[in-house]
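Hello,

Our lab assistant flagged a job as stuck in the queue for most of the afternoon. It eventually completed. Since we weren't sure the result was trustworthy after the delay, we are filing this so someone can double-check. Below is the sequence as submitted and the structure that was eventually returned. Let us know if re-running is recommended.
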Amino acid sequence: MDFSVELLHSTEKKLNAEISRLMKAVKVSTVSDLNSNTLGKLQKAPSNDFLNAFVALLESNMSLCKAAASSIDEMKSKVLDTQNQLIHRQQDELAKVKDTVQTEMKSWADVARKNDKQNRQLTAKSVKEAVKAVSEEEERSKNIIVYGVTDEEETETDWEGVLNIDKASETVKSICEVTDCLNVEVQSCSRIGQWKSDKIRPIKVQLRTSSDVDLLLRRACKLKSSKEFSGVYLAPDRTPEQRAAHNKLVQQMKELIIKDSSKHYFIRDNKVRYTDKK
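-- returned structure --
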């Protein structure tokens, strides 16, 4: 038996129905009135009927509890996997920052020893640019881009590209529900670019943490089976250079699909990979 909240509620309703039926049979108004004296009023046949019904419910409830325990163990395993992935990602990002700063500081030290004022200014500028790039990358890591959500013309209430923020936020929350990301917190939403009647602008969504972005992207495949969001897809907030590189990978993947459609192709770690179709 697979555990679900619906099954839990269904079992609860059946149990309450049997208790109500038993109370009615012995003519009592509260559960506390059910005791050996009142139950003794039942004849043998009705007693057996109630006993069989409660045993069946007990067995069903035990199976449901076992399924719930199994689901909890599975969820724990997934949470641990997610935490490990997040730790590895943070370690990789920290290593990149460390390498960037060390490289730029080494260049600064070399130039300082040469006492070259012009080069020193250039190197100081490159250090600032490196720190700025790291900061921008950190901000982008908390953003997700939503494509394919119906766009509307801006009104006087839409200021600086924010299109009907309440409606956009509700749409994103619905996407989180479909993808089972109920704990993901949406900080802000805005449309990208100017409105055009023949084009749907993507929505840039800022989430609370980069781990929320990772979770939503991993579960985005669930949108395909949703009637409302089957034409919606999600992507990380990439720089122009990253978008250009990703587009090349997409084009490469399309060419591979044309050559051999027997495999399932996907992009991971900036490479086109594939598996055999099931």
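-- support follow-up --
The delay was a queue issue, not a problem with the job. The result is valid. The CA atoms of residues 127 and 174 lie 42 Å apart. Helices lie at 5-26, 36-39, 44-114, 117-140, 165-178, 210-218, 240-259.
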